[in-house]
Amino acid sequence: MDLHSGLAYWIIKNELFNYFHPLENDYKIDVAIIGSGITGSLIAHELCKAGIPCAVFDKRTIGTGSTAASTAQLQYEIDIPLCEMSKIVGEDFASRAYHASLESIADVGKVLKEAKVNADYKSLSSVWLASYKKDVKLLEDEFEIRQKHGLPVEYLNEKDVLKKHNIKAPAALKNKEAAQMDCYAAATGLLKYHLKKKELELYSHTEIVDWKEVKNGYELETRRGHIIKCKYVIIATGFEAGQFLPKKVMNLLSTYALVSQPVHEDELWPERSLIWETKEPYFYMRTTIDNRIMIGGEDEEFQNPDKRDKLLRNKIKKLERQFKKVYPDIPFIVDMAWCGTFSSTADGLPYIGTWPGKDRMYFALGYGGNGITFSMIAAQIIANELSGKKDERAEVFAFDR
């Protein structure tokens, strides 16, 4: 399935990592990572750092799956608010998930710095707007529970939002612990870093079509009939991981994104904050390093790529109107637009770890709008477990939580 279509900004901005290296023989490695996007690259980085021999396999050109379509906002807020998530998974698990997400934002920055990868990582504030007056109560409840659990948060009333961010909204929650980045540059940069150091094998255009559990590991079969023998396999393929799972654990959604022509820097909003709304599906916006405006949302239930793609023109108009409601005086002319498919879970949390009873197949499934931060958490948990270290976060994101 095509994970996205249209003109994704990151593939235009960056030079394509034009890497063609399919597997042409049987192969043996300690850990096989399936997926070369931001999740697979972060996992590879953590494993290489831990001295664990690993190789990455992808059926596509490197990094051109969901990663190329990501709007790459790093926020500790999860799709389901803390006050609502607490009712689903319990307050302890919910607060631990939020704290793990908060810590992972800085961790992503550290990884990029230590690997000397320029992915336009930038720390910013995040502003969550009440779309309607009825949503003020939600923000008040969320503010209270975030404060209770020591999470960074500031409550802005209607006057505060207008004064500090030049937005007309009934209320907002703000924090200064967010970031944005270039997801494609990060993924490809990390892989190139470890390739150069000869710490990693990377195979493109190598599709895994069958697998079987054997004593002390797995045997994976490629479409060309080659066998990969490994002690562990890590599935980092987003919603396409469904083929490896015993049952369905996620829902598929179609999402849409636009990027504007560049504008003058002084025309952009205060602090260049990440801005998003309470309404569902929520609308969100950010800027880019070259002073473009990136907006997205209009999510809806996924049916098939053709229906998703046919809606793109209509979604462009809707997203443009939504931006104009927030900042009517900022010029916005669409330069590129794309749509993609992503997954969500009932409780808003990713699935990280092994399926019960299958101790050598790990999953790093960062479902939802926090894919990058969840991927960072998954990379750390899996690297710790393969190194024989206990990671207390594992139980929060486990399949049997």
From TrEMBL:
SUPFAM superfamilies: FAD/NAD(P)-binding domain. It comes from the Bacteria. Coiled coil: none annotated. This is Glycine/D-amino acid oxidase-like deaminating enzyme. InterPro entries: FAD-dep_OxRdtase, FAD/NAD-bd_sf. Residues 30-384 form the FAD dependent oxidoreductase domain.
